[in-house]
Amino acid sequence: MPRRIGFTLVELLVVIAIIGALVALLLPAVQAARESARRATCKNRLHQVGIALQAYHDVHGALPVGCTEWRPWRGTEERQLAWSAFLLPQLEQQSLYDSLDLELPFDHPVNAEAAATILPAYLCPSTPRGAELSSGRGPAHFGGMYGERITSPNSPAKGAMLIDRAISFREITDGASSTIVVAEDTAFEDGQWINGRNLFDQAFAVNAAPAFENDIRSDHPGGAQAAFADGSVHFLSDDLPLEVLAALCTRAGNEVSND
């Protein structure tokens, strides 16, 4: 009888098993490479924010106000505009800035169309929420640093971004390279670049806050990224000692924090 050329069923199963094993070995490496790329993109975007903050300070002599007219939970008339809205011209978003009426609240119908704009500069590509609108407004995965509640109550506020008051570099006596201005807060579901609630004081370790708390959190394994007053961006480890983290969140605590 003529000889047939081909694979037996056993040989085919062996080949499939080998391919499956190779895929299983390669998949974690591929996922790690993708996360590394997303983390690099996130760092670059935070760096853009850091440079924009420097430029804003050059023009106005101070950093942006963290929030204008903070709104109580049942308030309706306060404007509650965020630092990230005032920073738009320095992020090459002058036309979007001009389309806003900053004399009106963040959720006023007049500002609705502009507020729905999605700005990649305020997004971390690692978060599962992606670029989805938040209550009809453009999301923000980064929040302004209002201070810390790790070592003591945050009153008066200790951070580089306050409510209704702008902070200048002269007031950051701990040093620009040792003071966080903006950090990741990807788990805050109501984070919007126009809404002043993307301002927070740190109360827990990195990535350790409960779901309801507005705190430094990210979807990067092992930590989160933060932009400092000197424009640099650093990755904050989950294992960062609480006293060091608290020191980084304040502008004038007279603490000494090593790199």
Automatic annotation (TrEMBL):
Organism, as annotated: Aeoliella straminimaris
DUF1559 domain segment(s): 31-196
Protein name according to UniProt: DUF1559 domain-containing protein
Segments traversing the membrane: none
Higher taxonomy: Bacteria, Pseudomonadati, Planctomycetota, Planctomycetia, Pirellulales
